[in-house]
Amino acid sequence: MALPEETVFPEFDEKLVAYREPGSVVSEQFRKLRTQLLTLNLPGQPKTIMVTSASEGEGKTLVSTNLATVLAHDLNSHALLVDADLRNPALSRWFGLSNGRGLSDYLTGGADMPELLLKTKIAKLSILSSGTIRDNPVELIGSKRMEALVNELKSRYSDRYIIFDSSPLLATTEPSVLTKLVDGIILVVRAGVTPRESVKQALTTIDPAKILGIVLNDLALQSKDLNARYFGTSKYYYRYGYGESKEQPEEETGADKVLKNVSRFFKRDE
Is the whole model's pTM more than 0.85, yes or no? Predict the structure, then answer.
């Protein structure tokens, strides 16, 4: 499955922190998330991963895009990011790219896959956008053509991770269908916003055996000690991790604007 020639795109969305601010504390949390994913003690390494949430506005696209970015930065892996939210697509906007067609066009037989895959400016990261808006997203995601696509993408490249940015669990049916096709699921929960009962209800709609972990997004730690415990000190991080001798500036950075903190609970229940 050949990729098209690389295209020059406009600037990425500021929330793509792993690309725009690789030295930020937030970016480091996504690298930790990558490490947890790559070191899961499972019989087979999950290569097709759905990222979803209970409802909209919890940060699933934030997590899926930044996770795919850090996976692509790993020395031994490539990443393909698929916009499987056919109702409210966002990846084209996040990456500043669009060829007008995507996943839905492939599933309806209107285009071949090689002409739909787009290489980004990030080495080893490709995008498959959602494509033309259709009125039957559930049928498309649940089609035999979709099943064949997931299997082909998984088997064709042994070093490629395919991240599916899915629609919310409680608002749509597509994630419940897609869960049957992927190896694993990451659930994004927004701290202080998502009701506990909504999370419980969302978990009943997917296969619990495929849940790789839960990402707790937008967690504000009140104590500096707790913040240091979870995220380290910026002085240590900037001096030791990226070779800079000065402490992190006091003014708010782009990473700070994206989210207060990212905390991950990423382990499989025994």
Answer: no
- Please name which of 42, 1, 107 lies closest in space to residue 266, comparing C-alpha atoms: 42
Contact call for residues 221 and 82 (beta carbons, < 8 A): no
Tens digits of residue pLDDT in 122-171: 989 999 999 988 899 999 999 999 999 999 988 887 889 999 999 999 99
Range 151-158 contact pairs with CB under 8 angstroms and sequence separation of 24 or more: 152/1, 153/1, 153/48, 153/80, 154/47, 154/48, 154/183, 156/1, 157/78
Residues 216 and 186: beta-carbon distance below 8 Å: no
Residue ranges and CATH numbers for the domains of the chain are 17-265 (3.40.50.300)
Closest to 111 (Cα-Cα) out of 119, 120, 101:
101
Residue pair 58/219 in contact by the 8 Å Cβ criterion? no
Q: How many CB atoms lie within 10 A of CB 243?
A: 8
